[in-house]
Amino acid sequence: MSAALVDAAPIDAASLWPELDRTCAYINAASRTPLPACVLAAGEAAVRRKAATPWDIGDTEAQKEEVRTLFGELLGGGVSSRDVAVLPSCSFAMSVAAHNLRGAMRARPAGRRRVLVLEDQNPSNVMQWQALCDDEGGELLALPRPADGDWASALVAQVDSGSVAVAALPPCHWCDGAVVDLAVVGAACSARGVPLVVDATQWLGAAAPLEPARIGACFVACSVHKWLLGPYGACLCYAEPSFWRALAGGAACSRLLLHAAALGFEVPPRHAPGIVGLRTGAGMPPAAELVRRLAALKPRPVLVSERLGVIRVSPHLYNTPDDLRCLLDGLREAVRPASRL
């Protein structure tokens, strides 16, 4: 270890971590980190708010937006807060990634459905891929540690073989810190159309920004209880914009709200990402009748649900802009007083 590293004192550790038991030298941040005083104070204040005023625990949406923004800055490369989700754990985030990449696995011919991981990789980025392989006739390929220590070259060779469907990797090995050059691996993955998923828990907060677009990563997840100096039970996850933009619960629902309001429907001021409830306006037929009319449209019926007097619209990844146009055209026709479908 260099003398510069040992002698450097850029922060006042004693004041930032006043609660840390100094009777031992705790040098194990890769396992878990002690909470700085500011984090401890924020956590205590949050618990007290829940104890005192459970009906008013603060503007949690604004708080999460700030966290997402800061994580985007930490990742680098112009990541927006809209690209970041707050999730309960890294294993949960990797499960989300595996679910979203199921189609990519299925699109590969038999024998070319390998998920590439490192030998002895942390289980939080392994078990989900094993399950995906079991479900989709794939194979988990745990790459042995290369004798020369060059993980990137060994990984690129596997990607270039054409048998890899997904690469699920860390920027460094969690056991010894051996670096995996994801820029090199990501370039090979991009050239082969192989999605790259990254567990950056042992990197972010301790090393340089990853810049997901630069390395070609479609998902980057990071638990916060290690190098990010946070509590247990939280993970931040970047998703490449094409994933969440395709999710109709985003922009598509926003467009739907605008057009539905113009037609006279009552629209919610806030709604879940993928569910919009449209309440009928004055002079409109009941929601159940409008849903029936939509289902009777020719030549292309539109199928939505009526729940408790509300038209429930819930688009998802498989819906197209044309589906949305059909819905809006159908609503416009269905609310006409003389509508006969």
From TrEMBL:
A Pfam family annotated for this UniProt entry: Aminotran_5
Source taxon at top rank: Eukaryota
Domain Aminotransferase class V: 26-250
Gene3D superfamilies named among the record's database cross-references: Type I PLP-dependent aspartate aminotransferase-like (Major domain)
SUPFAM superfamilies named in the record: PLP-dependent transferases
UniProt protein name: Aminotransferase class V domain-containing protein
High-level lineage: Eukaryota, Haptista, Haptophyta, Prymnesiophyceae, Isochrysidales
